[in-house]
Amino acid sequence: MVETLKIQVQKTDKSRKAQVDFNNLPFGKIFADHMFLADYRDGDWRNFRIVPYGHMQVSPATPAIHYGQSIFEGLKAYRGKNGEALVFRPYDNWKRMNVSADRMCMPYLPEDVFMEGLRSLLKHDRDWIPSSEGSSLYIRPFMFSADEYIGIRPSQDFTFMIINSPVGPYYSTPVKVKIETHYTRAVEGGTGFAKAGGNYGGSLYPAKLAQEKGYHQLIWTDGKEHKYVEESGTMNVMFVFDNTLVTPSLGDSILRGITRDSVLALAKHWGVKVEERRVSVAEVVDGLKNGRLTEAFGAGTAATIAHIELIGYEEKNYYLPPVEKRKFSNRVLQELDGIKRGLMEDPFGWMEVF
Ligand code: COI
Fold this sequence. Notes:
8 helices; 17 strands; alpha+beta; 2 domains; binds 2-OXO-4-methylpentanoic acid; D-amino Acid Aminotransferase, Chain A, domain 2; eight-stranded mixed sheet
């Protein structure tokens, strides 16, 4: 891409990189030296800048804080053989950000602001991309309303930012999940498909209750009847029944996961039978009982492919077969990892070199 965006750069005078143990990275607690910002004012994006990562000033009357007019994305960069940044499907994140922006009455973010902002930021923070197994640079683009006004209306001013965090695995063990049949994450007509901050805020309490019972996460069900599986909050959810890959079809209440889409594409490419459809809680529980459900996993940027160890339903835990026996999810995990690290062929042209 030809650089057209004029980006002001203020580099840090003291990198924090030497203080980081890159062989022992937590998820989402460490941030690279710089961040990218852009302001939306008077109907246009402007003031593109890279500054040292750090706290920033916002008005206490910012509607993002009061009313949650805020959206975000998550994508990852990997270190290529020659030190280059290999970024997985960034155009899909840019597109999805605009789907979220539309739903949340936020302005369209042009491709060059997202891509050139990211390209420039990665140029300055390239050394923060970890190379150890299971690690990557998690990229967090986000946009929030920035008016100084506490009436309820869509803002006129916005800020778009990108920060980078070198990360290890989000889940370090196979996950224990509970099927949630009381609380609701999203409903038809709501914002569940958007990556809106409030979707995550609202899911904290039910997830906390599940965590108190020893689960890592929930499997959300439809808000009307709680009879159909939706997603897992930090990831989409997928099942293998009798060698068929089955996942809930997308709608208003499910995030259009890029990892989800990648798994489906790989499965079809390999000739695996794929079904995107309504998935009932009853068939999942029956499958666990009669052994037809051989694999279950989450798919997400942060979570990557997260094997599900057990599923809790109505106070009972149902165990899945041991992880080493799971042919499909292990293959997809290995293949996706190989593509992302530039070690395997990329048949879909997913990787961008930045
Ligand atoms: C991601 O996978 O990028 C997400 O946004 C999920 C979040 C739990 C980190």
